[in-house]
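Moderator note: this is an archived Q&A kept for reference. The question asked for a predicted structure of one protein chain; the sequence and the answer are reproduced below.
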Amino acid sequence: MFEAVIFDWDGTLADTKQAILASFHGALRAVADLDVSDEFVERRIGVGAAWTFREILDAKGLRCSEDLIKRLVAAKIRVALENTDKVHLFPGAVDLLENLHGKAKMGLASMNNRKIIEYLLAVLGVDRFFSEVVTVDEVAKSKPAPEIFLKTAQKLGSKPQDCVVLEDSIFGVQAAKAANMSCIAVTQGAYSADELATAHPDLVVGSLWENGAVLKFILKGK
């Protein structure tokens, strides 16, 4: 079995899409008087706000200063905290966490901001499951770079090859594989099963309700 399980948050354990869209739109309008399509943001959920804002400004042909990025990120965090009522755990998430609790080390690796993640974990009552939480605030490189998963494994005290990652995005799966970790892809985010398959996950499931397949892979599949 795998020694450690590393979970992504946005789109994997939690349905955060509406809150994330509201936070990006709110920040862009307030700070830069800009807007962008929902799809543009959705396809980048999980890479980190700063990187997404840079891509948005670049797509608009606008100059991107670090001061502007910092102001956009700060506004995004503020709006996100105002929209936490829009965040819900996916069906099956708590059951999966309960079934793994005490059987494997569990960590959370999120490219969202720590202030948002810590608040949501506490409000939704799942902070007790994770012995380590690593967020975008602690990494220099965004997914598909493996940095966030490698840091989480290091904090958990596990070798990469002894870890399995649960992810919902192509760049998340790519990051897990680049970290030399196994990966279960969940099609609850913006990417289809066929799109996720191009990143070569070890298992693809439609939702966390497929606990049987997920647990079998984690507990017996290695």
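Archived answer notes: Strands lie at 4-7, 14-15, 88-89, 105-110, 132-135, 163-167, 182-186, 203-205.
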